[in-house]
Amino acid sequence: MMRVFIGLLLVLSACTHVGYDRVPRGTFSGTLLVVWTGPNADSFLGDGDFIYVPLIGDELTFTRGERAMASGGSRIIQPEPFYTDGGSIPRSVQSLRGFNAWGYGPAYIIHDWLFVARKCLNDEAAGLPEAEVTPEMRKIRDMSFAESARVMAETIKTLVRDHSVQGGDTLSGPVISGVTAGPVSHRLWNETGACKGLSDEDAQLVREIQTGTKGRSLTALLSSSRATPLRLSRTRDAFLYGYVKF
């Protein structure tokens, strides 16, 4: 099973070369907060439906290394609220070490955000009226597909080397970085008509989380609550799934 899986990944890693061993590490800062909103049972990838919620003043940020050859304004990457499924890894192999959909959660959030931004930039360039491009998205306007794959490698290597995420340098880090440089990712990078912002309901949920509940800060709520998982909305399914402070 493992040999078949790795062989398939190597076949899919064909558009550009990443060079995992040569990319520099960067720096993570801020807080990662991910909210689960549903199982997404129709998909065989990822781990369900999630929303990344940036905490105001403490947003998840990845600062790329000095040798990263960052294009334009992409030295500092700071995602805005968006939908994610974690790592888009087939559920059938997520039990393998290093291939869990959230094993490199902060790296997946950074990489997913690049694709969210790129799709909106593509729609704007195509003149589609639905495209809503933010200043944060414009920072990666000059980023190439190959560079997006290098960012995946940079973020994973940073987690492995600086934050004690084990095993990534030997197998999962290079393999996952290679797959993000493959033809499937390349097609998604160039996709048009796929710029998707949050629904009004989900945007309201994000605002509620960012401003706290009943005047209490989210940090205080997290530290005082004994609920597992922590429900973040009284009117819908929305549970805290991941919370990491760098």
Q: Can you walk through the features of this model?
A:
With 246 residues, the protein is of the alpha+beta class. The protein has one domain. The chain has eight helices and seven strands; from the N terminus they run αββββββαααααααβ. The protein has helices at 2-12, 105-125, 135-138, 145-162, 168-179, 183-189, 200-211, 218-224; strands spanning 27-29, 31-38, 49-52, 61-63, 76-77, 82-84, 239-245. Strands 6-3-2-7 form a four-stranded antiparallel sheet, with helices on one face. Helix 1 (2-12) crosses helix 5 (168-179), helix 2 (105-125) packs antiparallel against helix 4 and helix 4 packs antiparallel against helix 5. The longest helix has 21 residues, at 105-125. It is globular. Mean pLDDT is 79; it is low at 1-13.
In short:
With 246 residues, the chain is of the alpha+beta class.
List its traits.
246 residues; alpha+beta; 4-stranded antiparallel β-sheet; 3-stranded antiparallel β-sheet; 7 strands; globular; disordered N terminus; DUF1353 domain-containing protein
Topology, element by element:
Layout: H1 2-12, E1 27-29, E2 31-38, E3 49-52, E4 61-63, E5 76-77, E6 82-84, H2 105-125, H3 135-138, H4 145-162, H5 168-179, H6 183-189, H7 200-211, H8 218-224, E7 239-245
Antiparallel strand pairs: 1-4, 2-3, 2-7, 3-6, 4-5
Order of helices and strands: HEEEEEEHHHHHHHE
Q: Rg, please?
A: 18 Å
User: Which residue ranges are poorly predicted, with pLDDT under 50 across at least 5 consecutive positions?
Assistant: 1-13
Largest sheet: 4 strands, antiparallel
Q: How helix-rich are the residues, as a percent range?
A: 25-40%
Instruction: Assess the beta-strand content as a share of residues.
Output: 5-15%
Distance between the termini: 36 Å
Structural class: alpha+beta
How many distinct folded domains? 1
Mean pLDDT, to the nearest integer, reads: 79
Can you count the beta strands?
7
Count of helical regions? 8
